[in-house]
Amino acid sequence: QWKQLENLYFREKKFAVEVHDPRRISVSRRTFGQSGLVVQTWYANTSLIKSIWVMAISQHQFYLDRKQSKAKIPSARSLDDIAMDLTEMGTPKVSKLVTLEAKNQLIMASNGSLISSGSQDSEVSEEQKKEKIMELKKKEKFLQEKLLQKVEELKKICLREAELTGKMPKEYPLGAGEEPPQVRRRVGTAFKLDDNLLPSEEDPTLQDLESNFIIHQKLVEAAKKLASEPDLCKNVKKKRKQEYADAVKKLQEIENSINEYRIKCGKKPTQKSTLALPGERIP
């Protein structure tokens, strides 16, 4: 019977009903020091368990409302009493709507109980309080560690962005009174060499020449980026253009050396610099 109910709760795939039966000595392992407490348990998938729990909570609330309404029925009432009752009935309706909204939010969780749903005749045992507090503390500790880990990752990403752009992003997390770190911009230092730089079974002299060509090709690309940067003063821009022209010239010289060696070995010459730098003119 509903008057014997102690608690209704679910956790993940488990649904349990705790009933107080004074005629029976409790043999349950979840007595919490209360005599005559019997626990009935069912298992199913999580969505079904949640639905069963919600229906049980609603049915129990219906029992409480019905019990309360029977207790409030007067023998005889005047018109003033009826008007006063109708005025007071507006507030409970609003509170019930708030309670229903809270229940709908509880359905989204992975566990819930009659106590957390706002029941009127539910009592929280000390064991359940301690268990819930310990669970919440563990969850808080885990979330704090996760937050610190994500903050460190964000700092590394912001520092990397500052090295590339020369400006510290506003998303960099700062503590109370902490100043953002000073980062010097890195320009033209990050590039990846091709895999064909590894030694092969071909002529080692030709391999060294081609490896040197690939390295200088990357240097030409970096020099071009430096020369094409905006907001440069006239002298710096002129110097970088000259460095870029020298790099292109050296690249062409390396290719000429490769072609001379290839012709000497009876192979066809290549035009790598022409393909890599289409339309470029050497001053």
From TrEMBL:
This is FRM4B protein. It holds the Pfam family CUPID. Keywords: Coiled coil, Cytoplasm. One of its GO terms (biological process) is establishment of epithelial cell polarity. The gene is Frmd4b_0. Residues 126-153, 237-264 form a coiled coil. It comes from the Eukaryota. InterPro entries: CUPID, FERM_domain, FERM_PH-like_C, FRMD4A/B, PH-like_dom_sf. Residues 1-67 form the FERM domain. GO terms for cellular component: adherens junction; bicellular tight junction; cytoplasm. It is found in: Cytoplasm. Its main location: cytoplasm.
